[in-house]
Specification:
With 236 residues, the protein is of the alpha/beta class. Helices cover 33% and strands 22% of the residues. It has helices at 11-15, 40-58, 74-85, 136-140, 165-179, 197-206, 219-229, and strands at residues 23-29, 34-39, 65-68, 89-91, 96-101, 110-115, 133-135, 158-160, 163-164, 186-189, 210-215, 233-235. The strands form 3 sheets. Strands 2-1-11-10-12 form a 5-stranded mixed β-sheet, sandwiched between helices.
Length: 236
């Protein structure tokens, strides 16, 4: 089993510094009528499972390109954090060692395609895996809840669309400061991923804040979400 600690320079470590029981990502899908909330501890477990799977099964190494072609979702958050924890560079275009896609999508430029079920309760594809693809949830959930960085990822490692760990952390901190986000903020976002991953995910978590992410947002429900979640800020 892998070990317990983040390195000081880990992008994932910097984004998961809250108290274990603190809500980290609350995900609404207004079209499906679902709500799922993950604490820091639960998200950390999923990130660790993802990182372990990427390294042990797919031989991902620091600097390898991992395409994340998923909509805003708690599973997408786990994929991003897991990829960054093991030092991969997350991309949204071009060739990659592995691409994470939603059901029904393909990634012809990827060496390996992993399908994320996007099931709100974390169910896998239940055997309905396209030929030549992998079931991300079904496979990754079998791996350990802790991940040990045998070699800490240097700050100059590319981690997101050509930007390095240090650059992303600096940009996220500056953006969070400009928006007034703090560790007591609870931010409701309807921003589209992957285009808005920096604002709608990284910036919020870099501030130590809690994210309420709404996909397929119904404008008539947003005020109710804000009231129910006691949000302090909104990103749209």
């Amino acid at each position: 089993m892998r070990g317990l600690a983040f390195s000081d320079v880990s992008l994932t470590g910097k984004l998961l510094q809250g108290a274990p029981a603190q809500p980290l990502v609350t995900h609404y899908d207004d079209a499906a009528g679902t709500r799922v909330e993950l604490s820091v501890a639960t998200m950390r477990n999923w990130a660790a499972k993802t990182a372990n799977w990427l390294v042990d099964e797919l031989d991902i190494e620091p600097g390898d390109r991992v395409a994340v072609l998923l909509p805003a979702h708690w599973q997408t958050a786990a994929v991003l954090l897991g990829a960054w924890w093991c030092g991969a560079e997350v991309v949204t275009t071009g060739a990659s060692s592995v691409a994470f896609v939603p059901p029904g999508a393909t990634a012809p430029e990827a060496a390996v395609t992993a399908v994320a079920s996007l099931d709100p309760m974390g169910r896998d594809l239940r055997g309905d895996v396209p030929a030549g693809s992998l079931d991300y949830i079904g496979d990754a959930r079998l791996f350990g809840d802790d991940y040990l960085e045998l070699n800490p990822v240097p700050g100059d490692t590319p981690c997101f669309m050509g930007s390095t760990v240090d650059e992303i952390l600096a940009a996220a901190a500056a953006r969070a400061d400009a928006l007034g986000f703090t560790s007591s903020s609870r931010v409701l976002s309807t921003l589209y991923w992957p285009a808005a991953v920096m604002d709608g995910f990284v910036t919020v978590l870099a501030a130590g804040a809690s994210l309420v992410q709404v996909t397929n947002a119904d404008p008539a429900k947003l005020a109710k979400h804000q009231e129910a979640e006691r949000t302090t800020d909104v990103l749209t």
